[in-house]
User: Fold these one by one.
Assistant:
Number 1:
Amino acid sequence: MRILVVGGGGREHALCWAIAASPLCTKLFCAPGNAGIAQVAECVEVGAEDIPGQVDLAQREKIDFVVIGPDAPLVAGMADAFAAAGIKVFGPSKDAARLEGSKSFTKALCRQHGIPTADYERFTDLAAAEAYIRRQGAPIVVKADGLAAGKGVIVAETVEQALEAARDMLAGNRFGAAGAAVVIEEFMEGEEVSLFALSDGEHVLPLVGAQDHKRAFDGDKGPNTGGMGAYSPVPILDAAMFERAMAEIVRPTVKAMKEAGTPFRGVLYAGLMIGPSGPRLVEYNCRFGDPECQVLMMRLRSDIVPALMACADGGLKHFDLRWTNDAALTVILATKGYPDGYAKGSEIRGLDAAAKVEGVEIFHAGTKADGSRILANGGRVLNVTAVAPTVREARERAYRAVDLIDWPEGFCRRDIAWRAVVPQS
Ligand code: AMP
Ligand code: GLY
């Protein structure tokens, strides 16, 4: 089979790495890809959000199966465009991707089906939103309804902050159309984890859980980012908690989507808050997490390609995937200044030595080749990923590799998986 992966980040490198290992894959393309992906796939300069460009590429290269990595093209209907062109695709339709693309859609679905999540209201009118915030008090969470590149959520500690966020979105046009409606919801206490499951629209195949680290700096300080590191498995998401989340949240969602005539086919990424009453939904994403995908692919023992195809074809019911009991952990190296301003083009050295550390794979997120040199080409640049029998050992391996990378312009967090690794005294 000739396979095309859409995207060019660390998630897509991990997907390409896993897909390239499948005996079913005879030729792998990635668009746009990056310098690391180029080691396992032929990269083509077509933007991840360029729907006609990606369909053209797939037709030209006689692609049999497309795997869409990022959320924006899914929410914009890229899977529908491939389907209309008669090309098999992994990733939900535009209607199903509303689970990520519209927070109020998901909140309404939860309310209708009794799926545990934060209590909320939706507003387009600023005065009504302000009155609601004053009535509820703080802490309270204000969210742009649409996709806002991960920046549309304000966890307000004071009523003033919440009012300002609502004004920014509803009157200040801060997130454009994505912020023309807001969801204002109850602040949930607890520990956040991510759970992943495949669906063919009817059946659900649970994958595993992971925990991301959203803040830029150690100790969960600094601005929110796309994710600075992840690990799997997560102690708090034990087998019993996982099954509760599947039974109370994920399966009812898949059933509701099917009944609504908009079946969800793809990977459902449930952001959960594990609190005193059990798991509650924070949000859904309609694709793999980045960097969570990197640790998932490192733990997966089975061929991923038939499982992804079964999401498109149906037939997930009889599917099983094998996972290693080992832990996997990834550390993100980002350009100094990320997530705000940062420079591109600095050189990264030492990658070969780092990749030789036992159990380590280095996935590229934002890199560009310049002859034999590797240059930084984004905010999140490298994902140094390791497997080992325990989270602690995976962490040691990953940081041993990180320390072999010579890139003064980069930085990373030093405390990935701190919740799972108790400091030794
Ligand atoms: P989201 O984009 O919806 O995942 O929100 C981004 C982050 O904001 C989440 O990962 C949580 O850390 C936090 N968050 C969102 N909603 C809530 C909530 N209702 N209570 C507490 N924290 C929240
Ligand atoms: N790691 C967070 C995300 O992929 O949205």
Number 2:
Amino acid sequence: MNEFITIIAPVYNEEPVLHELYRRIAAVMDGAGETWELILVDDGSRDNSASIIAELHKKDGRVKGISFSRNFGFQEAVTAGMRYASGDAVVLTDADLQDPPKVILEMIGKWREGYDVVYGVRAEREGETWLKLFTAKAFYRVIHRITSVNIPLDTGDFRLMDRKVVNAIGRMNERNRFLRGMVPWVGFKQVGVYFNRAPRYAGEAKYSSYRKMFRFALDAITSFSYVPLQLATYVGFFIALLAGLAIVAVIIMRLFVPDTQLTGQATTLVAVLFLGSIQLISLGIIGEYLGRIYDEVKGRPLYLTEKTWGMDRIDNY
Ligand code: UDP
Ligand code: MG
């Protein structure tokens, strides 16, 4: 077995979990006799994560590190890790041990059977509130409905990718990245393995804020679907139809029904407010796409690297 496996974990204020993460991954990978490297991408942590990465690298050269100039976000951290990875297969995992390291071996097994992407499907989620479970479920269902990319249900970012998939993703330079959609988009042979998502080992979740999750959902939808842009058209046609019927009804009543009283300020007000709000929402939807187009046009780098450990170069794309 001389294939080389790269494991990437994004790190944002993960001081209390890093030693344990290294210990568990080393135990699992060495136990199976694999050749591996672990790339820890410090996404502008404000705690001591960076110095722990430096320490781990000193102790074991197979641990490598990248440190960003500030917090750029999960997708950017993972993208950087993939650009620096040299493995024949690359595994993405969270740093907080919610993705059990031993599942990586199962993924490697599937990869050796000939699959190019092996994604982790969450069979059960421990230690999460029902509201998070419910919103997550609803999110996957909506995405499935309105995009043409076949994004697997209940799948996070925990996955193994063959070198050719990593190279393909490397050529996708879009901003507001949504990897969970980009990986299925590239195609190749993909398969899922079930696993139970563990509670976070220590520290606090960074995605728990619903505002952040909402942004994430918007990125996902706008990156892979035009359906929201078409909604205004459909709603517009529907309301025009209703209005047309109403006009005919009013004319008929005026002409043929004696003593027709067509008053009602409230009705007028409700109709105007209703239409006004639909117009504002449509404008907002256009704004979401426009803002993203603006981001693309500016073409800023996705992230800036400040420092690396164990890498022979600094890529500042
Ligand atoms: N993370 C990151 N940058 C961020 C937020 C999170 O690199 O801005 C990392 C974090 O350190 C962890 C992973 O992304 O390794 C998942 O984050 P978290 O556990 O907070 O999310 P959840 O498990 O709740 O989805
Ligand atoms: Mg987590």
Number 3:
Amino acid sequence: MDKVVVSIGGSVLVPGDDDAAYIRRLADMLREVASEAQVAVVVGGGREARRYVDMGRALGGSVRELDELGIGITRVNARLLTVALGDIANTEIPVKADDCARMSESGRIAVMGGTEPGHTTDAVSAMIAERMGADRIVNASNVDAVYSADPRADPDAVRYERMTIAQLKDVVYQDHDAGKSSVFDPLGVSIAMRERIDILMVNGRDLEELRNAILGRPIKGTFVDSHA
Ligand code: UTP
């Protein structure tokens, strides 16, 4: 059985667009693929995390405190997904990647949010993948692929079907700040590079695409090759 870690951005899970209906369909799909793959899921904070980070910043919070606010929201979102998953998922949200990796071995779907300040849930997904010895990380965002520049702002932006992990490292930012977003977290890229874990970048609102990525089938998004 393939071992897969899915990183679902808050912008996919709770964008404020009929979220309960989407989460129900996502949970149905995850339950179905869990018979074919060992699955762990990490959930991001999205707009709500940014809202809290912005309020905390206005109140003079340190980067560490702002990160803690973001982490709190990721855990609430993780719990929301487990409500939809029911018995097949955990009810306590683990706070350590190790615990989540271990929980995924039981045939259940292990779900968590953030761990500690200094990175995002993308890095958490890479930490779990390392502990699980995962075959791949699936990064579900609200963008359909990796581009050389923001395609909405730059009509010449190149869309990547395939790239090496070294190329991905070149397009991500380097320094962490609370609420700062990138195509993938730089710590997550470093871990995936070291552990040679492929990353599939897909649009998570397209559940057929997300399912194909989890099962290792051809995708419309970007395949980031860690072996090239
Ligand atoms: P996210 O993982 O949602 O980050 O965590 P993001 O990149 O801003 O969100 P997406 O991928 O676009 O949806 C939200 C915030 O929570 C803190 C960080 O401040 C992060 O920006 N966080 C999260 C941590 O400090 N540690 C963690 O393990 C996870």
